[in-house]
Amino acid sequence: MSNSILVVGGGFSGLTAAIEAAEVGYEVYIVEKTPFLGGRVAQLNKYFPKLCPPSCGLEIQFQRIKKNPRIKFFTQAEVTAVSGDAGNYTVKVHIEPRGTVPSSADLSLLASSLESDVDNEFELGLAKRKPLYMSVPFAFPSRFVLDKAALSRADELKVGKSAFCDMNEAPRDIELNVGSIVVATGWKPYDVTKLSNLGAGAFANCVSNMQLERLASASGPTAGQIKRPSDGKAPKKVAFVQCAGSRDQNHLNYCSYICCMASLKQALYVREQYPDAEVTVYYIDLRTPGRYDKFLRKVKADEKIALVKGKVAGVEEDAATGDVIVEVEDAVKGEKRKHRYDLVVLATGMQPSLAGQKLPFDVPVDEEGFIVGGEEKGIFAAGCAQKPLDVMRTAQSGTSAALKAIQTVRGR
Amino acid sequence: MAQPVRIQPDLEFVKELQAVGGESLKKCYQCATCSVACPISPTNNPYPRKEMVWASWGLKDKLLSDVDIWLCHNCGTCSDLCPRGAKPGDLLSALRNMTYSRLTQPSIVGKWLSSAQYLPILVAIPAILWAVIWVIMAGVNGSVFPQGDIVFGKLFPGDFTIDPIFILTFFTAVGILFKGTKNLIASFQPEGRTMMLGKTKHWTLHLVDVILEEVLTHTKFKDCGADKSDRKVGHMTLMYSFVILAFVTGVVAVGHWGGKVIPAIEIHTPMPLTFPVKILANIGAVMLLVGLAILTVRRKALDPKKTSSNYYDWYLLGVIWVVAVTGVLSQLFRLAGIAPVAYSVYYVHLVAVWMLFAYLPWSKLGHLVYRTAALTYVRAMGRR
Questions:
Q1: The CATH homologous superfamily of the domain defined by A5-96+171-186+353-409
Q2: Which domains does chain B have, with CATH numbers?
Q3: Could you tell me the pLDDT band of residue B35, with boundaries at 50, 70 and 90?
Q4: Does B33 touch chain A (CB under 8 A)?
Q5: pTM for the complete prediction?
Q6: Which of A198, A329, A335, B185 fits a disulfide with B35 by CB distance 3.0 to 4.6 angstroms?
Q7: Rounded distance, CA A272 to CA B202, Å?
Q8: What integer pLDDT is reported at residue B226 of this predicted model?
Q9: What ipTM, to 2 d.p.?
Q10: CB-based contact A197 B43, cutoff 8 Å
Q11: Dihedral over alpha carbons A145, A149, A151, A156 (to 10 degrees)
């Protein structure tokens, strides 16, 4: 029997669930797959409802974790097996070596002296990174990660000499005894290579909405300047393609809830940086739930932002200029045209991270990969593992899952 | 502000449409992927998105006067990319099926052609017709199957039965199609008058263009996309086999009837296997089977979630299959000298051929005239 709670996933909902439970006195473990906490929110430039930079909201969460001895977190860790019942689960966790000693030492000089460059998954293919790295300046834990496999021979010698790196750290497998589990595994951007009629991710200047967040972010590859990935040119004409994969039975057979708001927000990023730029958003239906309608009115007031009903169904590249040509029918006017843009943003949808994965715990998922049950077993889904949500509702669902987890373990 | 338009939906019409093959149309949410996906849809007022909303709203008048349904060559790309499985391709196909039964008189035949439950009636008419002739000739011949060499003319004499019946059937069908085509063109006429600026071409010249540039070459099928090339090959093989077989029939008719006046051009049936006309006929028959096989395999392989085949599709394929198979088998059993089987199969062949021609105006094969007429009209109106 245990009254501890395991939270799988260290994104916004997982952090919220963990902190809420810990702050009322329960012991919580967070298991996070990546080297840093913060999840998708850490990748954003600004997030709803108040358009804060992520460092703002996450900073508070990280402080609360640091100050709370009841929260223990494991990064680069994955749950491999779960056995037992509600109130008494044995959880096996596999932890990859971080390769650096426990300290907040700034290893950026050493990192920049390394010769290898590898694709930066955090920047979604827009930049390279060194084998010794942090994701963002405000990353938590504030401790570099060593990607041993990516080191060259010369790099290995340099890193081996550093007192702050540990080339010999081995992977570990630990066992946790918990009473309840919160599954906050979150989401991943839908794979654009599957969108064959939208360029399949093959055109440099046809980016995804998450890539645009990185392009607009001060910690991103362009230091916040929205530029074309192909030539660094400032875009003058930008198009947003809504429902790139969402609401489509061939891809994601549901509305991803947040992409309309994301595109409207990103339209403003572009307009704030480039007062002359023209933006067009092509949509099926503009969905701005609840009070977000006010935001839509603000966007509509901008004369240089056009909102056009009609889903883009063809994307081509002009190889000579790098321009992207979209083909779309304006469904109100009944005109099918090709339009040329400097930059096209695909509003790709949210796919649950668990889609297509074999789960270590026995909870029912729907055909899309969202968790749809398991509460009677003391396993509760939070955030986008459950359904597509914005950050605010994600936090609410994290609190809700924490409360249910507490009710499961209380008195044990 | 524009005045609000009051829509008067015809719900019965929507149900009727769903019954003839457009059952998924209500799933459409007007994203307009289909109009863009279609490689041959024009840039102004492209189809099929507008047809989808008209159908959902029950705007019968708009749909029944819509020429665009004939521009579609049913490649299915729109339905493949449709995010909702609303099958816009099936809707246009259903609308065309509706045209066959609505515009063509008498409409009772159209009803019989619209559902498998009436198939026995369709079969019974020619089955009785040819059976009556068989009974009479059995009396004349003194046996059910004629004695001696197998000559189909002994059982179904060309001069007194086959030729008059088919000539009458053929010209009746032509007359019915002519009237149907007039109705079709009249349905396309917009309200008021259309003013044409600049030089206009006579419609017959447009018809020639359609036949040369689209029908004979199947260019629209090519434009439908390389991944649909089996459709083009299958349909073209089938069409040219019909052309060959029609030509052979014409030559034999001229040789037979003309031979009575000018003995030099006389042709006797059955023709020897090495006779050039017979060789051509057999090439046509093989092409017919090949074309049918390609189209049937393709149709069977369609994903029913994307494109479904309706009764009109299967009726036409089925009848042509029976025509082709019984035609080839009649010849083989005749050559093999198995009289009872040869005569019986030939009887089925006559039933199927009569069905093909007599019901043509109400069947999917009506597209051969209606589509050509619509494409000609479209060119004359300058919509490309």
A1: FAD/NAD(P)-binding domain (3.50.50.60)
A2: 11-103 (1.10.1060.10), 107-381 (no CATH)
A3: very high
A4: yes
A5: 0.87
A6: A329
A7: 58
A8: 64
A9: 0.83
A10: no
A11: 90
